[in-house]
């Protein structure tokens, strides 16, 4: 086939069928372009993952590389699943997950709804509201311990100012009853804008004509909100919850800087507990089994959730 | 929207909505403003009760951030020649002399090196991979794309255990190169997904025209697709940079000295009797400021970036 005939064929056929004209074949280019990414991810993610699974069946300790390593089968797993402390950690994580997501969805949606009223300079204020979520959680978390100090902290002062309580009478990060809420407050402060942005996109995706039609049918604003707005934003909201859920299940930096897991174990989320086992107690095998259990939990929950999300989208 | 519409909120509604949003924005900005303000307070002003809104600004926090100081007796201090510089003068008020630079400069530079290095690599690899995924028939495309995304779901601490062991074998613990590879790998999921979205939006006809004009695939990619994708590539790069800049978990576990970045370092800045809050705040201000600027530059693509391209507006 001549060159021009090829060109004509290339023009006439869809891109996937476009053939090579000169130089490397498309197939070769595709492989050359994709291979480095896949290779790097295999080296830095999959190979370590397989290594983790292998280690999880041993009593290996990384601080004693020369000690004899023996296979102990599923003993790490049974020990983790029957350990009461791990269940307390899971409870702390669940509390953190539930309340951060609930608050962020409520406040985030409300803010998005207000911003969608399109008042003057609403874009500028949106950008300002978004700022906290872009910052380093460790650096910001560390500074919040200053805001949370009894007496001199701005947070305690503000609460005292609003409620009339004594600012020295409570310590957000020092008290067992308050610490779980201290981390919820900072996470909500940081990540509400994330939910807000996604909700805003959802609200803006609803065409005005639908509301106009509803007005013609004399549907009340209340009814419009529940039968039009909410269902149409729901897929967006669920996506936001998925992202926040995965992120907060992995939560480490912010909370470790805020409370370090304390007081006691009240804010010891799974990642913090895992870090202690792996890098302070150096029970590498045990921590590896712990990590595998966390993987399975995240992937399991996320895939169930994604199925639900797809169902909502199809509706 | 033009003209009157029954769905357009009334003026009063707009005002009320605006007022509530601005109230939230002000409250949410307070902690950030407090960081900036604390950086310019003297140590005693920083911990005064009630918290001081009005204070005499001083550069003490910044001086303490960048220097190490030693205490000297008042007699030795009196014998010293008068201070050469304004920062010498500040330090001497506290019966101290500057002993040398602090580690903050190095740590900040590490953040810059690792941030830019990993951003360059992940955007480069991400762009070519995204191009391939966007334009060619890659076997198991959807599975590969999902695999790339799923690498982001793993808790960093869980990944860090084997990485730590692997890097120990390879001598990559606490090295710039090790951190650049690691952050590149973590950012690849974001850069491939985001860039695939951006490249998908470039009409394929442009390349076809170039191919017909006698360009090779490589030339078409370089001279047609890359310029078209420039905005997308730039915003992806900023997202990758912000991630690497802010990252803490890997940094605290895998670096301790030569390659330590700023986030694990800033919380360790201590003065007499605990954290030196003005110095911490000064360090945080300098460290957070670039991200604030980038966020404002990125505002149009923010939503896309934080959702890995899932929501495009």
What's the helix count of chain B? 16
Mean of pLDDT of chain B: 89
At the first level of CATH, what is the class of the largest domain in chain A?
Answer: Mainly Alpha
Order of helices and strands of chain A: HHHHHHHHHHHHH
- Return the structural class of chain B: mainly alpha
- What integer value in Å does the Rg of chain A equal? 26 Å
Q: Assign the structural class of chain A, choosing from mainly alpha, mainly beta, alpha/beta, alpha+beta, or little secondary structure.
A: mainly alpha
| The CATH architecture of the largest domain in chain B | Orthogonal Bundle
Question: Would you kindly provide a brief summary of this structure?
Answer:
With 315 residues, chain A is mainly α.
Layout: helices, strands, pairs:
The complex is a heterodimer of chains A (315) and B (313).
Chain A: H1 3-12, H2 26-55, H3 75-81, H4 84-115, H5 122-130, H6 137-147, H7 154-163, H8 179-204, H9 208-216, H10 221-249, H11 253-258, H12 270-279, H13 284-314
Chain B: H1 11-39, H2 43-46, H3 60-66, E1 67-71, H4 74-79, H5 86-92, E2 96-101, H6 104-135, H7 141-150, H8 156-170, H9 176-200, H10 204-212, H11 217-228, H12 230-246, H13 249-254, H14 262-265, E3 270-271, E4 274-275, H15 277-298, H16 302-306
Antiparallel strand pairs in B: 1-2, 3-4
Helix pairs in contact in B: 1-15, 3-15, 6-9, 6-12, 7-9, 9-12, 10-11
Provide an overview of this structure:
Chain A: This is Carbohydrate ABC transporter membrane protein 1, CUT1 family. The complex is a heterodimer of chains A (315) and B (313). Chain A is mainly alpha-helical. Chain A has 13 helices and no strands. Chain A folds into two domains: 53 residues, no CATH class; 233 residues, MetI-like fold, CATH 1.10.3720.10. In chain A, helix 4 crosses helix 8. The longest helix of chain A is centred in the first third of the chain and has 32 residues. About 3% of the residues of chain A have low confidence. With 313 residues, chain B is mostly helical. Chain B folds into three domains: 46 residues, no CATH class; 44 residues, no CATH class; 202 residues, MetI-like fold, CATH 1.10.3720. Chain B contains 16 helices and four strands. Chain B has a two-stranded antiparallel ribbon. In chain B, a hairpin with a 2-residue loop joins strand 3 and strand 4. In chain B, helix 1 packs across helix 15, helix 3 packs across helix 15 and helix 9 packs antiparallel against helix 12. Classes of the chains: A mainly alpha (315), B mainly alpha (313). At the A-B interface, helix 1, helix 2, helix 4, helix 5 and helix 6 of A face helix 1, helix 6, helix 7, helix 8 and helix 9 of B.
């Amino acid at each position: 086939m001549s060159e021009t005939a090829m060109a004509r064929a290339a023009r006439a056929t869809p891109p996937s069928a476009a053939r090579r004209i000169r130089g490397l074949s498309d197939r070769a280019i595709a492989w050359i372009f994709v291979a480095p990414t896949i290779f790097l991810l295999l080296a830095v993610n999959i190979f370590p993952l397989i290594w983790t699974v292998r280690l999880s069946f041993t009593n290996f300790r990384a601080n004693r590389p020369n000690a004899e390593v023996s296979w102990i089968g599923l003993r790490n797993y049974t020990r983790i699943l029957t350990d009461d402390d791990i269940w307390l950690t899971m409870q702390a994580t669940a509390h953190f997950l539930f309340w951060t997501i609930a608050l962020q969805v409520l406040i985030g949606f409300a803010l998005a709804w207000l911003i969608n009223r399109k008042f003057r300079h609403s874009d500028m204020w949106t950008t300002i509201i978004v700022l906290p979520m872009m910052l380093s959680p460790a650096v910001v978390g560390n500074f919040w311990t200053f805001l949370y100090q009894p007496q001199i902290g701005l947070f305690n002062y503000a609460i005292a100012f609003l409620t009339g309580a004594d600012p020295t009478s409570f310590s957000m990060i020092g008290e067992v009853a308050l610490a779980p809420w201290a981390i919820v407050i900072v996470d909500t402060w940081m990540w509400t804008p994330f939910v807000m942005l996604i909700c805003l996109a959802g609200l803006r995706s609803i065409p005005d004509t639908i509301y106009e039609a509803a007005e013609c049918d004399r549907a009340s604003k209340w009814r419009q909100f529940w039968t039009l707005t909410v269902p149409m934003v729901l897929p967006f909201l669920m996506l936001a919850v998925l992202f926040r859920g995965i992120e907060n299940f992995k939560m480490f930096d912010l909370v470790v800087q805020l409370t370090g897991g304390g007081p006691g174990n009240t804010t010891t989320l799974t990642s913090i507990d895992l870090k202690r086992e792996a890098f302070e107690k150096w029970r590498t095998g045990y921590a590896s089994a712990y990590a595998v259990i966390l993987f399975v939990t995240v992937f399991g929950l996320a895939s169930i959730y994604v199925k639900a999300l797809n169902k909502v989208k199809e509706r | 929207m033009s003209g009157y519409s029954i769905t357009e909120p009334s003026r009063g509604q707009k005002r009320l909505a605006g007022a509530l949003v601005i109230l939230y924005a002000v409250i949410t900005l307070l902690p950030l403003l407090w960081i900036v303000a604390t950086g310019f307070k003297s140590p005693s002003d920083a911990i005064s009760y009630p918290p001081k809104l009005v204070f005499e600004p001083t550069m003490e926090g910044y001086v303490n951030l960048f220097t190490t100081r030693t205490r000297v007796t008042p007699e030795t201090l009196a014998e010293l020649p008068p201070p050469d510089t304004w920062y010498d003068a500040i330090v001497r008020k506290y019966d101290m002399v500057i002993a040398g630079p602090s580690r903050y400069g190095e740590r900040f530079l590490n953040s810059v090196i690792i941030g830019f290095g990993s951003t360059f690599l992940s955007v480069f690899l991400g762009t070519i991979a995204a191009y391939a995924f966007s334009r060619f028939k890659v076997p198991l495309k959807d599975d590969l794309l999902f695999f790339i995304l799923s690498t982001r779901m793993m808790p960093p601490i869980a990944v860090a255990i084997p990485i730590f062991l692997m890097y120990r074998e390879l001598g990559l613990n606490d090295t710039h190169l090790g951190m650049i590879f690691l952050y590149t790998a973590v950012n690849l999921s974001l850069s491939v997904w985001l860039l695939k979205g951006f490249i998908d939006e470039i009409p394929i006809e442009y390349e076809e025209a170039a191919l017909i004009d006698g360009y090779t695939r490589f030339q078409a990619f370089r001279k047609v697709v890359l310029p078209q994708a420039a905005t997308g590539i730039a915003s992806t790069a900023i997202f990758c940079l912000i991630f690497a800049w802010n990252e803490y978990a890997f940094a605290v576990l895998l670096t301790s000295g030569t390659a330590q970045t700023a986030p694990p370092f800033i919380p360790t800045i201590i003065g007499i009797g605990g954290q030196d809050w003005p110095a911490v705040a000064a360090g945080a201000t300098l460290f957070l400021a670039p991200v604030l600027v980038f966020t404002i530059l990125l505002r149009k693509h923010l939503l896309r970036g934080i959702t890995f391209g899932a929501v495009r507006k």
